[in-house]
Amino acid sequence: MLEGTSTRPTFDADAVQRELEIIKHDLHCNAVRICGLDINRLMTTAEAALKLGLEAWLSPEIFEQSKQETFDYIVKCAKASETLRESWPQQLVLSIGSELTLFMQGIVPGTNLMERISNLSFWENIKAGVHNKPLNEFLTVANGAVRQVFHGKVTYMSAPLEIVTWSLFDFVCVDMFREARIKDSYGDLIKRYLAHKKPVIIGEFGCCTYKGAEDAGGWG
């Protein structure tokens, strides 16, 4: 769900099963990130992935909500995820948010993504790092509440513009697309995350399938 529109309005559990089998057997992956808003869909998809022997990186996502609404949603998802973790304790990782500076209200001015990034003060605030304090305050509280109800590995899917207190989490995660602008420096940008002495996960990467899309990266 993004900007009020579901990217998959019809949920077909059989289609999900087939796609997960393709991910495992044809693409030879051993892990899958599962994103979405509807908790029942998330749990159904995660369980199917876990039964196939895949690691499930469960990434509940709610957009354009207040800090309190986002917090309540994350904790609710964590409670539901604990049942799966009890059956597959080594295969399930929970993310407590995705690029919240961009997608949650209350970190930087704006009621939605486009308002935030088009605000004249946005890049000034980002360059000054004023967003990092409220972000990490939220993550600290959310992480504490989540770990009360979910007893597995926890992370946060960050944007490159966020400086996260990674000591809170079991993995360092960043959504980092290789594009023309950072093509030559991509490796160095990733290396800086190794300083936290934790496994580093690239949560989003790749490009669209048209010719030249690799230059556009995440904006493709």
What would you note in describing this structure?
This protein is of the alpha/beta class and 220 residues long. The protein has one domain (13-175): Glycosidases (TIM Barrel), CATH 3.20.20.80. Helix content is 42%, strand content 15%. It has nine helices and six strands, in the order H-E-H-E-H-E-H-H-H-H-E-E-H-E-H. Strands 1-2-3-4-5-6 form a six-stranded parallel sheet. The longest helix has 21 residues, at 67-87. The chain is globular and about 45 Å long. The mean pLDDT is 93.
Properties at a glance:
six-stranded parallel β-sheet; 6 strands; 220 residues; 9 helices; alpha/beta
Layout: helices, strands, pairs:
Layout: H1 13-26, E1 31-36, H2 39-51, E2 55-60, H3 67-87, E3 92-98, H4 100-103, H5 113-118, H6 122-128, H7 132-149, E4 153-158, E5 172-175, H8 186-191, E6 200-204, H9 213-216
Parallel strand pairs: 1-2, 2-3, 3-4, 4-5, 5-6
Main β-sheet: number of strands, strand sense, barrel status? Answer: 6 strands, parallel
pLDDT averaged residue by residue: 93
Can you name the CATH architecture?
Alpha-Beta Barrel
Overall 3D form: globular
Question: What's the short version?
Answer:
It is built from 9 helices and 6 strands; from the N terminus they run H-E-H-E-H-E-H-H-H-H-E-E-H-E-H. It has helices spanning 13-26, 39-51, 67-87, 100-103, 113-118, 122-128, 132-149, 186-191, 213-216, and strands spanning 31-36, 55-60, 92-98, 153-158, 172-175, 200-204. The chain has a 6-stranded parallel β-sheet.
